[in-house]
Design brief:
Layout lengths: L5 H4 L31 H15 L12 H17 L5 E5 L2 E2 L15 E2 L3 E5 L2 H11 L8 H8 L13 E5 L3 E5 L51 E2 L10 E8 L3 E9 L4 E10 L2 E8 L6 E9 L2 E9 L2
Antiparallel strand pairs: 1-4, 2-3, 5-6, 7-8, 8-11, 9-10, 9-12, 12-13
Helix pairs in contact: 2-3, 3-5
């Protein structure tokens, strides 16, 4: 996770006890209706964890209950939450954060240090906002498994902060495209995924800022035997009249492609039949719907992938 920003904080909008998904691997989310839980969740999380370690997700190989398997559990539940909880705008108010965790931090007095950078970051996709937030917090976003897993699920198309357009807002002239490297970075240290094993002696409070070569390793380049079910961001987006939706299924199976309004109600079903392994693309005509946010949801054999779409006329 690194820094607690938009994607993780979205859990705070959930009803008690559904927001309490920051638990260790194997722990039960108590107080949740059992019918709302995946009975094979632990098996699925462990299988994905082993696959992600083999794929080279950075720092995921840290052993122990507070190592990679802990982060795999958090990230899985975080992404599940983000796939069904929708917000129109995601905001980091000033990368206001603490160099540490709550009260504890890397000062001689074991206290966290507050920062107020006067940066306000906002955007429609929480993961892109968080990637920029991690970068400005002096971390390298490619070193965080949460973003690799969001990419794998088709919730984003890049984890490279340099590939995300950043606009600087002027109160008089409005937004203009800016160079990410022109912004000051503020080092917000974390204790997550400390490299303190196999002869490594990284401090408890540390930056996850080692260089990452984007596009050459990670879950976005899995071998064919380890490919996954994913839904790409629709194109074009925003949508004026029509848009294309592409998804990949790793096997034959029953597929339903549905369009939902921002309240979660199904307003149109594009496909409901068995499809074969591979990539599939369908079009959605939005001209008869009012402007606003809509969701495409693909159900393949009981597994779901979603993406948000902005319609304007």
């Amino acid at each position: 996770m690194g820094l607690t920003l938009c994607a993780k904080n979205l859990q705070g909008t959930n009803a008690q006890n559904y927001q309490a998904h920051c638990t260790s691997y194997g722990a039960t989310m108590t107080g949740v209706n059992p019918d709302h839980l995946n009975p094979s969740a632990n098996e699925d999380i462990l299988a994905n964890y082993d696959r992600h370690v083999a794929a080279g997700v950075p720092r995921w190989d840290r052993p122990g209950s507070e190592g990679g398997i802990w982060q795999e559990t958090w990230a899985t539940r975080c992404l599940d939450n983000n796939s069904v909880t929708f917000a129109g705008l995601h905001i980091i108010e000033g990368i206001y954060g603490r160099d540490g965790n709550f009260l504890h931090g890397p000062t001689p007095d074991d206290l966290a240090t507050d920062y107020m950078t006067n940066y306000i970051i906002f955007g429609r996709n929480q993961f892109y906002v968080d990637i920029i937030g991690h970068y400005l917090g002096a971390h390298e976003p490619g070193n965080f498994g949460l973003f690799h897993m969001a990419l794998e699920r088709g919730m984003i198309t890049t984890i490279n902060p340099r590939n995300i357009p950043v606009y600087e807002w002027d109160k008089d002239t409005g937004p203009s495209l800016a160079n990410l490297t022109s912004f000051e970075r503020f080092p917000l240290k974390t204790y997550y995924l400390q490299r303190d094993f196999d002869g490594q002696n990284e401090p408890y409070w540390h930056l996850v800022n080692e260089p990452y070569i984007y596009g050459t390793t990670g879950v976005n380049n899995l071998p064919d035997s380890q490919e996954s079910f994913y839904l790409k961001q629709n194109f074009p987006n925003p949508v004026r009249n029509s848009t294309s939706l592409t998804f990949h299924i790793p096997g034959n199976g029953d597929v339903a492609v549905e369009i939902l309004n921002n309240g979660g109600q199904v307003i149109e079903t594009l496909v409901s039949r068995q499809l074969t392994y591979g990539d599939h693309t369908f079009s959605w005509n939005s001209s008869k719907y009012s402007p606003g946010i809509y969701i495409c949801r693909v159900n393949w054999e009981g597994s779901f992938r979603t993406t948000k779409m902005l319609v304007y006329h």
